[in-house]
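Before a colleague's protein record goes any further, I have to sign it off. Alongside the sequence sits a line of tokens, each denoting a local backbone shape. I want your independent view on whether this chain really folds as the tokens say. Where you disagree with what is written, explain briefly why. This is what I was given:
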Amino acid sequence: MSDELTDTQVDEQVEESEHKAPAPDPLETALSERDAYLDLAQRVQADFENYRKRAAREQERLVAHAHERLVRELLPILDDLERALEAAERHEEAQLVEGVKLVEQSLRSALRKEGLAEIDTDGQFDPHVHEALLTKPGNGAEPGSVLEVLQRGYRVGDRVVRPAKVIVAE
């Protein structure tokens, strides 16, 4: 027999070598996976950063809108104050008192629209909504009850904006 291979035998050897692909290098596979995960992590991080910036812009926009709305509600009250001051300059005291009352009513109405409510001061002292400035004998009042309100307190919803400053019975 001759040492030369026939065409058929050469084709068979080529096919065998093609089917026997070298096993992938584990280091190369790990490096490839690492690069893919790193790329994914960087994209997720960039997406999150973009989301954070969008959320901050949206929050700023909402705050600006709320301030604008409140200012719009308070502008007529400013106008009323200007009119009250003009009346005071003309020494028309009856008109001044009436003007100041109108301003107070307008301001209360605007603040009520924003959810402002006065804190109830009838009854027992509540440290969550009252600030005791003084205690004194109650002259028949139950100890711990509110005797006098020195400054009204207000809340918006469940949040106390300003506690009521009160005198409490001993």
In short: Residues 79 and 103 are 9 Å apart (CA to CA). The chain has two domains: 25-114, 117-170.
